[in-house]
Predict the structure.
Amino acid sequence: MNFTIAPLDETLRPLIQAKIDAKTKPLGALGQLESLALQMCLVQQRLDPQINAPHLVVFAGDHGAAAQPGISAYPQSVTAQMVANFLQGGAAINGFCDEAGLSLKVVDAGVKAPLPAHPNLINFKIAEGTEDYCQQAAMSSAQRQLAFARADSLVAQLAEAGCNLIALGEMGIGNTASSALIAQVLTGIALEDLVGPGTGLDAQGVANKTEQLRAALQHHALSSPSGETALQVFGGFEIAMLAGACLGAASRGMLVLVDGFIATAAVLAAVKINSNALAYCVFCHTSSEPGHRLLLDHLQVKGLLDLGLRLGEGSGAALAFPLVKAAARFINSMASFESAGVSRAI
């Protein structure tokens, strides 16, 4: 499917910057919050940005390659177990969303297990996990397109309900490996610089994982692939839906909060498909997964937080959301030099 994403209209930029500069503070004193406020205003095309019905969506899926020894420190069954934990309210992301004021939805994009019905679970299962990309493409073109369509339909429902901000999270054993492969073929960054411990591999485990992934790269031998092809060959259904949700949200003028390495790899693929999507994205943190900082540098963006996180689930996005609210609050509520009767710098 095609996503029509408008480039940001820059007409309001001088007025927005003047409003920021007129606040009772030295120029630039609020650092990244000022850039964030400016971005929010440009995305929403208004001088008083609003946050309405914000949602965090965790897309969950399993990877066929996770059955290969050494891809993950945890068994594949943990994906379904963690989805159950999300729905029972026991995961870190549940507490973080409650604290931040984010509504949480969980999407079964392709978990390799049946999941019981739950009000906060959306059943968009494409299949019970992807194929093993060490042997063949992880998914078919039709499955990748269906993942995009289902993610877009969810974003459309949220937008129709008034949501103008979506935060992206994920769960899927083996998805740091998948993300490293997607990142490598789309950026050319050395594989060994992108592969990290994931759920807790030691140094030897990371080395073994790297060699397995190198063999997968050599097996497929992709040359300058598109974002769609990278997702189709190496992605998980949850990663494809993350990319589709990013594109769908940007096409509707929504602000997109991006979590860590996996979410950023998905956004990288989305940006390869439509480069205008990048301007709608806020990168919430820099994780300790080594490839994440390299991807942020490649996209020429900076994370709001640097807390050494590597949990996933959308945890970094939920923790950064109060900063997004603070950026909107200062530009909307902070007094100007004129209104407060405060003298400007000489």
